[in-house]
Amino acid sequence: MNHLIEPGSGGRSSYLSFMLAGEEYAVGLLRVREIIEYRPVTRVPGMPVAVQGVINLRGSVVPVVDLAVKFGLSPRPITRWSCFVIVEVALDGQQTVLGLLCDTVREVLELGPDDIEPPPAFGTRVRLEFLRGMGRHGDAFILLLDLDRLLSLEELLRLTTAADEAPASVLSTAPQPESPGHG
């Protein structure tokens, strides 16, 4: 069995591709919950450097990972195409929800075992342990991320602890109507 293909796929797998700093990346579509437009992020003290903070997603606290920072790049400017790809990662056998900050989402693509190469030993900005492989799509290659290895266990534990402790403050930061200033 090819370990680069999503388990249980029996052949071709679907991936969601997105752009970050001019490079195209993809994650397994089965791990993607949704794509939402960029919104302000609440900073939480003590987070790993790549974690921008948390957002309120329909009453749930979702940590946001800035992939550019995680990959050693400068933080990306926020544009009208910036968005969060909400994904599930495995943490100690439990599913944890994260938001990945991306420059823009590209497309859903289908890759078979013959379309996927092992991660390159050189030439990428991403550390090899974060990659599942490289997908060949047309005449281009797309870096396939390994979501379960993107953050270390220690980083994920800090995220889940912060998410457990943050709901009251994060959930109460919803915009309030402006008061006219009359007491």
Q: What is the element layout, followed by pairings?
A:
Layout: E1 13-20, E2 23-28, E3 32-37, E4 51-57, E5 60-66, H1 67-70, E6 83-91, E7 94-102, E8 104-111, E9 116-117, E10 131-137, E11 140-145, H2 147-150, H3 153-165, H4 167-171
Parallel strand pairs: 2-11, 5-7
Antiparallel strand pairs: 1-2, 1-8, 3-6, 4-5, 6-7, 9-10, 10-11
Would you write up a description of this structure?
There is one protein chain. The longest helix has 13 residues, at 153-165. The model is unreliable at 1-9 and 172-183 (pLDDT under 50). The chain is mostly beta strands and 183 residues long. It starts with 12 loop residues before the first strand and ends in a 12-residue tail after the last helix. It is built from four helices and eleven strands. Strands 8-1-2-11-10-9 form a six-stranded mixed sheet. Strands 3-6-7-5-4 form a five-stranded mixed sheet. The radius of gyration is 18 Å and the shape is globular. Helices cover 14% and strands 41% of the residues. The chain has helices spanning 67-70, 147-150, 153-165, 167-171; strands spanning 13-20, 23-28, 32-37, 51-57, 60-66, 83-91, 94-102, 104-111, 116-117, 131-137, 140-145.
What structural category do the secondary elements indicate? mainly beta
Largest sheet: 6 strands, mixed
Q: What's the Cα radius of gyration?
A: 18 Å
Encode the helix/strand succession as letters: EEEEEHEEEEEEHHH
- Helical region count? 4
State the end-to-end CA separation. 69 Å
**Beta-strand proportion:** 35-45%
Strand order of the largest sheet: 8-1-2-11-10-9
Overall shape? globular
